[in-house]
Sequence to fold (901 residues):
Amino acid sequence: MNTKAWSIKLHPMYGGLQLEDHKTGSLTQGLQQASLPPQLLLPLKQHIGVTNKALVRPGDRVLRGQLIADSSSPISSPLHAPTSGWIREIAAHPVPHPSWQSDTCIVIDVDGKDEVLPSHAVDTQNLSVTKFIKLIHDAGIVGLGGASFPTSPKISRGDNLGIETLIINGVECEPYITCDDILMQTYTDEVINGIAWLQRILKPASTLIGIEDNKPEAIKAMKQALSAGNLDNTHVVDIPTIYPSGGEKQLIQILTGKEIPKAKLAFDIGLFCQNVGTCAAISRALDQNQPLISRIVTLSGDGIRQPGNWEVRLGTPISHLIELAGGYLDNQARRHLVMGGPMMGFSLSGDQVPIVKASNNILIMQQQTIPQAPGDHAECIRCSRCADVCPAQLLPQQLYWHARAGAYDKTEEFNLFDCIECGCCSTVCPSEIPLVQYYRTAKSEIRAAQQAKFKSDRARIRFEFREKRLLLRKQQEEERRRLKREALKKKIPQVLNDDSVIDPVQAALARVKAKKQEQPVANPPKNTTNLSAAQQRQIKEADARRRTAHEQRA
Amino acid sequence: MTSVLVSSPYISPSSSLRRLMINVNIGLIPGTLAYAWFFGVGVIINILLAIVFALAYEAVILWLRKKPVIPHLTDYSAVVAAWLFALCLPMHAPWWLVAVGIGFTMIAGKHLYGGLGFNPFNPAMVGYVVLLISFPLEMTTWYLPIAISGESIGLADSIAYSLGLADIQQWDALSSATPLDQFKTLSGQNISASEIRLSPVFGNFVAVGWEWIAACWFIGGLWLLYTRTIKWQIPVAVLGSISLCALVFYLYDPERIASPLFHLFSGAIMLGAFFIATDPVTAATTDKGRIAYGILIGLLVYLIRNWGGYPDGIAFAVLLANMCVPLIDYYTQPRVYGVNTDRSDDE
Fold:
């Protein structure tokens, strides 16, 4: 019980932006349970890391919670059947991805019975830390804040490095999204239990739960649950609402005043960040023996009839959710679907794509707000509003200048890769330059160039090695010939008469003759010579048998 | 259904170029009205002429450069440049002077470098300096404030003169040096400051008319700050550095040297600090850099006013500081998140 007043000094983050949060629309009704769609589409890869292999075949029957895809790589996360049904096919379908590409999906025809795979409860009281981490991996848990990095390798790395402060991210700073807000209000205990598990594994000295102060209900619920529970040194911290305070680097800066050094990760400075959704998923896996098969998704935006939050089985097509939300507001309107928030989300190719582990929000906008393609905007007037709002303290106008000119080495000098693509700069730019789009392009160009350089370097090294090898072989050959020549020079005078002219043919014939005379040809020994008495007896017996057999046949 | 492949963010921009330029134009209104009140409508004719010429030049050049004409003309950046340029002219200037000057502003100062955003020098100041060097007589003919002379050159006469239909010499009796010029000339003749101030142009506070105009530029500047069109660093640094320089020398010899207030409320320092030095394209872009840039301008203005060949020095100071911007920006980059964190831990 932690009743005495506790306070923490908050630190300012760099830059940031106050945005209209548009969150009330989806909060008017509580969490709703989404019905099962007729079909689920489950992309094999819903995490950062190695793609899973399907463990089922078309025609198989699967039960809820059954493992259907997995990989042996440590950086991967298995996939479970979200409900019972029959595998229809394993084929390429459109998936939620910024490139609008298709990817291999397991398609399940839902049978509506929602039959659960029988499993025996694990006694979690006496398990080792390694076992916990294994259970978290087996439950298919990934970071549910949006990045979907597999949780188990992150925890085991943090466990090795020693964690001073555990930071739980319930900030949810992007406009429109309310899934974590509603999660903290609805599944408060699961979040708290998940935090307890993380504390048991990582043994942090203190735990801070960061929540933006525009979520008073969630803050209240979490504070109440904490005061009723028995977690040590665990505190809810309401932080000012300023975008992007929910970025890991920004939240760490606000709560601790520390910065993650360039090219390092949070655990390198003794911190470990985890999203509230992930905590709830960990609790479900360890306390209820339930793998990750559903998540809370916000449907929001000005193009949907009834914004809200739904607990949705993974693989549910977005069109099904939109029906649940009363459909599009105007069926004729030009609309725009985004997965994630308006600041960092990405456009979807259509509403046929499924909900995946990373889908926190589906934004349905009546129309595109920034339809500009690069090159179609006004020029930069160097007003530096972008620099003022940059949470990474970069100089976006310099980055833009060099990115546009294709001077990618210069963009790296200006720390392009420290850009977290939060979108603040694009939002404040009076010339309406899609700055982040320029940076994304520059980053991918640089990565492509690095790949190409890596390949060409490898090819060059191989070529050089081959040249060297050929040269060495040639030298060895020459050396061998030279030695042979020298040997011959020494040998020839011994073989031939001193006065005769060297005739190679004669010499060879002479050598052959000499050889024949040296070794008189002897009859090779037969295997019947030098037989022992026993062997001779055996032979005699065998001959006798043969003879009788021959006579009988005759 | 239609979806569009565009990368995030998907939020409407919070400001626009046009809005910024309109804000600057609004900020210029009080000072311009005060100017016209004290010195006659000539300045308004200059501004209108300059705007017409600027838009015409810009339209032609955009057409030659095969750029969309209307979107660029309606960003109002040409209007701002023309307005600032016209404010630097004497209140009665012939039309061709305006045409030549704004021509340099728009063509040489802006579009030869690539248009808005690419020019290293403040275009309005480029046009003004070209005129100042090429037409010294026309550019230094100033007139007494109406409050002192009691009569003004009316609208019809101003237009007639501007179009070359009338001769300005009939008004020669009204011509006068600016207070800055007068102070400089007289103090050069070893006349003490208290004696100089007896001249009617200086009035009771700093200089009749000029002090009010400066106050109005200041109000316009507050509007720019309020609307976040500009940031505080440059105006504060410019005004602070010139005040500090003036104070040091004034305390050293109050009989020979003008006071800080005189420097702040005469000439074009208020206009310069809030409207000219803050041109984002040609100013420093980092916060620290802006302070350095502003200090440099204040210092240069003070040097030119006291020891230079011109009574006021905003244009030269701004152009010289423009040259230093790449250097200033390079050495005042902020520390990137997570870089050199050891240093911040020590702090």
About this structure: The first strand of chain B starts at residue 142 and ends at 143. Residues 161 and 167 of chain B are 6 Å apart (CA to CA). Chain B touches chain A at residues 1-17, 19-20, 71, 75, 77, 115-118, 231, 280-281, 283, 285-286, 333-339, 341, 344 (CB under 8 Å).
